[in-house]
Amino acid sequence: LIARMLDPAVSEYGALYSGRLVSSLIKHVGTALNVNDILQAVLNKLTSCESPTIQQSLLVVFIKLFNHDLEGSMNFLRSINTPNGENGLVYVLKSWCEIQELFTGEYETKVAVIALTKFLPHLLAPDSPFASIMVSDEEMSLEGGRITRSAKTQQSPTMIPISVKVFKILVQEYSNIKEEREAENTGDLSDEDDDVEEEEEEIETQLISIAQLAHYLGEDDDEDADNKDDPLNEVDLHGHLQQFLTQLSTHASYSELCQTLNENERNVLSSMQVSGS
Questions:
Q1: Residues whose CB is less than 8 angstroms from the CB of residue 91 and which lie 6 or more positions away in sequence, other chains included
Q2: Which of 71, 158, 211, 248 is deepest in the core (most CB within 10 A)?
Q3: What is the 3-state secondary structure (H, E, C) of the chain?
Q4: How far apart are CA 245 and CA 219, in angstroms?
Q5: What's the pLDDT score for residue 261?
Q6: Model confidence over 247-274: pLDDT tens digits?
Q7: Could you tell me the pLDDT band of residue 30, with boundaries at 50, 70 and 90?
């Protein structure tokens, strides 16, 4: 079943629940599986997907592994390549940074942000092998279930070091949580983004073997029992990010990182009363 869902020849929509299924199998029967081959298949499928929802599902497989064993997972991905010959870890990091701002789901967003706080110190290390990785600093949105770039960046997107991109993502995620808390306090909560809903409707019409997947997962479509049991659910993401960014302000590269922020991002740090912002 996993092989079928991750087959590059099969529609990407057939892989919607494959990430959840792979993570569940690794957790419960990992030693009985050829995990390396499965993760290679996940990586291969990721390279052929265009839907951010499908990409997120596949990326979360690796994100969970990063949170469980960062060094081991990094070393494994360094040892494999995409079908086009790009290093696996580099591809995952770049793909992740590109769509992190489009992540949906409280649990998925939380585990991704926590993993990024673990990654950033590695990216900032003087001997970091990731220093040369450049990613686009584009503003993205969803239209019809597909990623679109701002008109400003379609012509000549600005490329920035991945360490800067991750820092900006974390600042933005802190801002998002802060705004959500303020909205909750005032009762001014908006509905889900219409583009996300449109994509979900499109996916629902194209999924294969949904009933079969639900049977294997042993869960309904709304929430995975393994996610409910994850200790990371207990993490207060607002407090976690505030503590991380405050500690980061003592890092030798912090002032340089802050120089890359726009006015809104600097205001977010200023609201935290973090030095150097």
A1: 43, 46, 47, 82
A2: 248
A3: CHHHHHCCCCCHHHHCCHHHHHHHHHHHHHHHCCHHHHHHHHHHHHHCCCCHHHHHHHHHHHHHHHHHCHHHHHHHHHCCECCCCCEHHHHHHHHHHHHHHHCCCHHHHHHHHHHHHHHHHHHHCCCCCCCCCEEECCCEEEECCEEEECHHHHHCCCEEEHHHHHHHHHHHHHHHHHHHHHHHHHCCCCCCCHHHHHHHHHHHCCCCCHHHHHHHHCCCCCCCHHHHHCHHHHCCHHHHHHHHHHHHCCCCCHHHHHCCCCHHHHHHHHHHCCCCC
A4: 36
A5: 94
A6: 999 999 999 999 999 999 999 999 887 6
A7: low
Q: What is the pLDDT of residues 215-228, one digit of tens each?
A: 444 444 444 677 88
Phi, psi (rounded to 5 degrees) for 222? -85, -40
Question: For residues 258 and 101, what is the distance between their CA atoms, to the nearest angstrom?
Answer: 19
**Angle at CA of residue 205, ends 201 and 211, nearest 5°:** 110
Q: How far apart are CA 220 and CA 224, in angstroms?
A: 8
CB 54 within 8 A of CB 93: no
Tens-digit pLDDT profile for residues 52-100: 999 999 999 999 999 999 999 999 999 999 999 999 999 999 999 999 9
Location of structure tokens 């199998």: 25
Q: State which amino acid sits at residue 147.
A: I
8 Å CB contact between 30 and 69 = no
One-letter amino acid of 15 = A
In contact, 203 and 264? CB cutoff 8 Å: no
Separation CA 220–CA 234 (nearest Å)? 22
